[in-house]
């Protein structure tokens, strides 16, 4: 790849998210095109491949990563296989944008942080797309300029209309709460030290044995508290609300306040957002465009990340691991994280806890 050539991207896993990413790269992102598609389902690969003229289908995901004229990899495979596929990308020296979570356990994420640090280049970006959402960016800017005074608390709600019947109680944390964990680190700029997961009466719409909803309390290094209602079978629509309460005021995002209409006879209201693709479409586009631009800027030897990196993926995985433990024990659990200083320079440009080593 030269500066003027399109980045040749392999997309692995072309289900809901991967197919969207193929479409976004080919239609809306400049400086990149999808040249390889890989999916465990040959039918699905062929179906999505038919929408991407230039793309070659490669059945084995590790062969797809190794294809010589693939410059970068976008992973939208199931969360359980992210860690091994990211490690394969690092082994091949290729930049990777990995959908969240980076790994389903803290050890897997830490291994990635260590391997990237050994390479001496930042090649791993994690798909915490809320950092690219305009509302989140505005909220962060209000906090950073001091307009709210010192932030003290955050209140969050994360409601999905429904999830796959295969989703278990731990996956509610690793797949859904992981977004609030990253948003907390991003907005407040510090690490999370402890987590408590409470169990309200489960919804009758949740699958047998699934703890849904859950109430999660995060405690940060300086003692700020964040409460999160996560409810993944809430019906109705998609809602992600975040309110930051500071010493001089509060601010809330995610209120679905698009167009509000008054119509006869006597009705008033707006549209409910149906899902994450609609709510975060702009954020996914910005995330992928900035990733592509960062790889062009980094070239063959520089850093290829603009946004959350491997350290952010690890920090979130460590909090999730403590959350799963809290879910099992009903206790408040302190987060077990290695100190950042032992890792070296790899990690995130976007995350606040990015102190000089
Ligand atoms: N950032 C977000 O808001 C967001 C939204 C949805 C999903 N996600 C993440 O994206 C990932 C995919 O989620 P999804 O909803 O698209 O899932 P999905 O089930 O719709 O798609 C996954 C695809 O991967 C394929 N696959 C399975 N194992 C594979 C393997 N080992 N190698 C290659 N392909 C394989 C499957 O056949 C399927 O087509 C998950 O990690 C999820 O957490 C992120
Ligand atoms: O995988 C999805 C995705 O990450 C969405 O952004 C989130 O709202 C859902 O809860 C999760 O299941």
Structure report:
The protein is of the alpha/beta class and 357 residues long. The protein has 2 domains: 153 residues, NAD(P)-binding Rossmann-like Domain (Rossmann fold, 3-Layer(aba) Sandwich), CATH 3.40.50.720; 146 residues, Dihydrodipicolinate Reductase, domain 2 (2-Layer Sandwich). It has 10 helices and 15 strands. It starts with 6 loop residues before the first strand and ends in a 23-residue tail after the last strand. Nicotinamide-adenine-dinucleotide binds next to helix 1. The site of nicotinamide-adenine-dinucleotide (NAD) has 25 residues, from helix 1.
Query: Largest beta sheet, briefly?
Result: 7 strands, mixed
**CATH topology title of the largest domain:** Rossmann fold
CATH class of the largest domain: Alpha Beta
What number is the mean pLDDT? 94
Which value, in Å, is the CA radius of gyration? 20 Å
Provide the spatial order of strands within the biggest beta sheet. 12-11-7-10-9-8-15
Distance between the termini: 32 Å
Total beta-strand segments: 15
Protein name: Inositol 2-dehydrogenase
Domain Gfo/Idh/MocA-like oxidoreductase N-terminal: 7-128
Catalytic activity: myo-inositol + NAD(+) = scyllo-inosose + NADH + H(+)
Keywords: NAD, Oxidoreductase
């Amino acid at each position: 790849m030269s500066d003027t050539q399109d980045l040749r991207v392999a997309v692995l896993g072309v289900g809901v998210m991967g197919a969207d990413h193929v479409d976004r790269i080919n239609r809306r992102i400049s400086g990149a095109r999808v040249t390889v598609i890989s999916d465990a389902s040959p039918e699905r690969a062929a179906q999505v491949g038919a929408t991407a003229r230039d793309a070659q289908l490669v059945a084995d995901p590790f062969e797809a990563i190794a294809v010589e004229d693939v410059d970068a990899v976008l992973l939208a495979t199931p969360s359980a296989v992210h860690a091994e596929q990211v490690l394969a990308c690092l082994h091949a020296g290729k930049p990777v944008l990995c959908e969240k979570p980076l790994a389903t356990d803290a050890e897997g994420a830490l291994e990635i942080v260590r391997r990237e640090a050994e390479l001496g280049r930042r090649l791993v970006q994690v798909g915490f797309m809320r950092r690219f959402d305009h509302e989140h960016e505005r909220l962060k800017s209000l906090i950073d300029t001091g307009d709210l005074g010192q932030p003290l608390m955050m209140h969050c709600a994360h409601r999905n209309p429904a999830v796959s019947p295969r989703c278990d109680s731990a996956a509610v944390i690793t797949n859904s709460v992981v977004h609030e964990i990253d948003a907390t680190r991003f907005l407040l700029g510090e690490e999370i030290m402890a987590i408590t997961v409470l169990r309200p009466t489960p919804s009758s719409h949740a699958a047998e044995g699934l703890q849904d909803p859950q109430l999660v309390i995060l405690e940060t290094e300086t003692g700020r508290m964040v409460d999160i209602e996560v409810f993944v079978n809430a019906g109705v629509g998609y809602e992600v609300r975040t309110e930051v309460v500071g010493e001089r005021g509060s601010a809330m995002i995610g209120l679905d306040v698009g167009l509000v209409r008054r119509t006869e006879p006597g009705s008033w209201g707006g549209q409910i957002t149906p899902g994450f693709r609609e709510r975060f479409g702009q954020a996914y586009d910005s995330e992928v465009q900035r990733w592509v631009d960062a790889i062009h800027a980094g070239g063959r030897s520089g850093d290829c990340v603009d946004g959350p990196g491997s350290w952010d993926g690890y920090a979130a995985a460590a909090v999730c691991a403590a959350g799963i433990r809290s879910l099992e024990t009903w206790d408040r659990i302190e987060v077990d994280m290695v100190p950042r200083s032992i890792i070296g320079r790899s990690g995130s440009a976007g995350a606040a806890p990015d102190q000089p080593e």
